[in-house]
Amino acid sequence: MFGGGVRTHYVAIAVCAPLLIATPHSLVVTVSVAVPETEQHAYGVAYAMAKTADDRLALAAAIQLGEHGVASVAVHPDWVRTEGVLQFADQVDLSASQSPEGVGRAIAALAGDPELLSLTGQALGIEALAARYGVDVSS
């Protein structure tokens, strides 16, 4: 959870920081998941800690890179119909799931938002982004 998730996100941001700073209107997106405090027991300790750390990393990157005009957000998709998720389709309700392409459309719309810096440091649900930008995340 930490080596393949949080550490990987951190290293990518650290290595790419000079490029992000040199590119106007840059955006760092950390894909995470909402882990409500009252529901952490349902996720397991390692998973809950790693996802919370991802959200904090997005906030820390927003603070460190914001002065250079770089925005950083965490995004929280719901069930995304990847190959890994689809193998459990008979065990999981995917009726409100999102397509990988739909999640990409929401992030692309976010990246093009002229008010992007006003969202920096936040954790944003993909459904909320889809509503904000009028994009379809289901197909």
CATH architecture assignment name: 3-Layer(aba) Sandwich
Number of helices: 5
Question: pLDDT below 50 for ≥5 consecutive residues: which ranges?
Answer: none
Mean pLDDT: 93
Work out the helicity level. 40-55%
> What profile does the largest beta sheet have?
3 strands, parallel
End-to-end distance: 29 Å
Order of helices and strands: HEHEHHEH
How much of the sequence is in beta strands? 5-15%
Shape: globular
Physical arrangement of strands within the biggest beta sheet: 1-2-3
The CATH H-level superfamily is NAD(P)-binding Rossmann-like Domain
Number of strands: 3
Q: Report the top-level CATH class.
A: Alpha Beta
Supply Rg. 15 Å
Write down the oligomeric state.
Answer: single chain
Structure summarized in a few sentences:
By secondary structure, this protein is mainly alpha-helical. The protein has helices spanning 2-22, 45-66, 83-86, 100-111, 126-133, and strands at 27-31, 71-76, 123-125.
Describe this structure in words.
The chain has about 140 residues and is mainly alpha-helical. The chain has one domain: NAD(P)-binding Rossmann-like Domain (Rossmann fold), CATH 3.40.50. The chain is about 50% helix and about 10% strand. It is built from five helices and three strands, in the order αβαβααβα. A three-stranded parallel beta sheet has the order 1-2-3. α1 packs parallel to α2 and α4 packs across α5. It is globular, with a radius of gyration of 15 Å.
